[in-house]
Amino acid sequence: FSQRIAIEARKDELGQLAQSFNTLSTSLEEVEMKRREFLANVSHELRTPLSYMKGYAEAVEESVIEPKKGLTIIQNEANRLERLVNDLLDLAQLEGESYPMKLEPIAFAQLINDVVEAFEVISEQRSVTIKRQLDEDCIISGDSDRLEQVVRNLLDNALRYSPPHETIDVTLAVRGASAELTISDNGPGIPKQDVPHVTERFYRVNKARTRKDGGTGLGLAIVAQIVKKHRGELEFVSGEGAGTIVRLVLPLEM
Ligand code: ADP
């Protein structure tokens, strides 16, 4: 990949050809670098829960830890591994060019209401209030299972990062030929320099905290792929200590 043609400076056609070749070569290098980085990340993410499981199994076997305690940790790590593998498979499927996305009319407010209601027990446990202001006439065109997954992921993040006694605002409105969903939380926010990267695979602002919270680091990468397949837009408005607003725009059913 690191081939370069050294006649770029020439102003003639050959010089231009060399320039195009060099640009292409650079972008292929970048793709290759991203691929390697992704593989390294996957290996690391898979190995971590495995090491915990092996370590605790050994500790139980050698009676250095109470069996019940050890088994609970092993179970948690196995669950984590399962989530990770499921997310990886899901992402690989979604990234495939030919992955079919069902397009059917969806009453978006209804879909959002269903997701919010499913979160009610957790939000009550955490003393977080979810306020809704939804335009009931918003009919979009999309894959309802996938869009439910999007809303669930975004709300899950908003809840995960919300301190107790705070409010999450969910609004849905028609804007021209689109539906605009916003989910705003009053959590710690995302530092400005991290905002453009949050939809990258395994990108985490605070590695230690998200691992403890059970996130796989793939949630927003999956969300971004689904939104892309719906020709929608996804935007994060945030800053350190400023809370986070996620704005999702999807085309209305014509
Ligand atoms: P994770 O599984 O780690 O939550 P995501 O892909 O869902 O992975 O999110 C990527 C990162 O973006 C998170 O690790 C977190 O640092 C940041 N993030 C996402 N949503 C929020 C939010 N509402 N408030 C603060 N940080 C967030």
UniProtKB/TrEMBL annotation:
Locations listed in the record: Cell membrane
- Please report the record's description of how this protein sits within the membrane: Multi-pass membrane protein
Coarsely, its chief localization is membrane
> Where do the Histidine kinase domain residues begin and end?
41-254
Ranked from the top, the taxonomy reads:
Bacteria, Bacillati, Bacillota, Bacilli, Bacillales
Describe the location of the HAMP domain by residue ranges: 1-33
Q: Does the keyword Transmembrane apply?
A: yes
Protein source organism = Halalkalibacter oceani
List the protein's name.
Answer: histidine kinase
GO CC, alphabetical: plasma membrane
What top-tier enzyme class does this entry carry?
A: transferase
Its EC number is 2.7.13.3
The keyword rRNA processing appears for this protein:
no
Q: Which GO terms describe its biological process?
A: cellular response to phosphate starvation
Molecular functions per Gene Ontology: ATP binding; phosphoprotein phosphatase activity; phosphorelay sensor kinase activity
What keywords is this UniProt entry annotated with? ATP-binding, Cell membrane, Kinase, Membrane, Nucleotide-binding, Phosphoprotein, Transferase, Transmembrane, Transmembrane helix, Two-component regulatory system
Report which part of the complete sequence is shown: 209 to 462 of 462
Which reaction(s) does its UniProt entry say it catalyses?
ATP + protein L-histidine = ADP + protein N-phospho-L-histidine
